[in-house]
Amino acid sequence: MKKTYTEEQIEAYKAKYPNVVGEVTLVPSKFDESEEDDPCYFLVKKPSKALLTMLGSKEYKDNPEKANDALIANCVLEGDMDMLDNDSSVFTGLIEKLINLSNVTKVQLKKV
Q: 107: burial class by Cβ within 10 Å (0-12, 13-18, 19+)?
């Protein structure tokens, strides 16, 4: 599958959101494993502190579908939205990746 965005769009997003833009490549699961893998691509940004706070509120904690929709709406900049809407493996894979983007990559505690 072809990317649905250009290098110019990537550069524009990187200028708008420095250090938080990345590309996610997903290969949807298939019923027939002999079929050729056809990846789909998404340009995403890390969840903001405000979004994480909102997702932690009772309204979103009690409604996972609403929380997932908010995560997609706020973090997916470009990509194959038809695959996202129509393939559950793409949807769940992208949600998992977006949640992982909010995790700390490295923490150090040093005795002083």
A: exposed
Q: What per-residue confidence (pLDDT) applies to 32?
A: 67
Task: Say how far apart CA 17 and CA 96 lie, in whole Å.
Answer: 21
Q: Which residue has the higher pLDDT, 31 or 93?
A: 93
For 76, phi then psi, to 5°, come to -90, 115
Query: Where would I find the beta strands (DSSP E) of 13-108?
Result: 21-26, 40-45, 76-79
- Given the DSSP bridges, would you call strands 76-79 and 40-45 parallel, antiparallel or unpaired? antiparallel
Q: What is the pTM of this model?
A: 0.83
Domain range 7-101, CATH class: alpha beta
Q: Are strands 21-26 and 40-45 parallel, antiparallel or unpaired?
A: antiparallel
3-state SS, residue 19: coil
75 burial level (CB within 10 Å; 0-12, 13-18, 19+): buried
pLDDT exceeds 70 at position 34: no
Q: Domain locations in the chain?
A: 7-101
